[in-house]
């Protein structure tokens, strides 16, 4: 990876066109499924945070693209044709993760994050802005 890349747009533009397009599509799917999340660039990868906490990352390697982050349980059957680990789903531009599966994963991750950080999120929402 180019060490001068420090934002999502530059990262995607630095990839081969097919990988860049596949990750741009995945990026849009994640943002559509979690419209309150914010994009950032961390660990050398495009990432998404919700309420200040990491949600997911996307990236590319020589022969595949990937969705990174602890994956929720219950997706084994729909992801059986993808190489994966506890924190990664690998895919190719020719065989992307189905949009409905991406949406379901993101929605489940949002629920998990909001449950885990419920007290902190509630505290932030009730803070009154300083005048």
Condensed summary:
38% of the residues lie in helices and 23% in strands. It is α+β, with helices and mostly antiparallel strands and 131 residues long.
Outline the structure in words.
The protein is α+β, with helices and mostly antiparallel strands and 131 residues long. The protein has a single domain, classed as Aspartate Aminotransferase, domain 1 (Alpha-Beta Complex), CATH 3.90.1150.200. It has helices at residues 8-13, 17-33, 99-116, 118-126; strands at residues 38-42, 45-50, 53-60, 65-68, 83-85, 88-91. The chain has a six-stranded antiparallel beta sheet with strand order 1-2-3-4-6-5. It is globular.
Q: Return the CATH architecture.
A: Alpha-Beta Complex
Q: pLDDT below 50 for ≥5 consecutive residues: which ranges? A: none
Portion in strands: 15-25%
Number of strands: 6
The percent range for helix content is: 25-40%
Q: Which CATH class applies here? A: Alpha Beta
Strand line-up across the major sheet: 1-2-3-4-6-5
Question: Which structural class best describes the helix and strand composition?
Answer: alpha+beta
The pLDDT mean sits at 90
Order of helices and strands: HHEEEEEEHH
Using only C-alpha atoms, the radius of gyration works out to 16 Å
Helix and strand layout, with pairings?
Elements: H1 8-13, H2 17-33, E1 38-42, E2 45-50, E3 53-60, E4 65-68, E5 83-85, E6 88-91, H3 99-116, H4 118-126
Antiparallel strand pairs: 1-2, 2-3, 3-4, 4-6, 5-6
Helix pairs in contact: 2-3
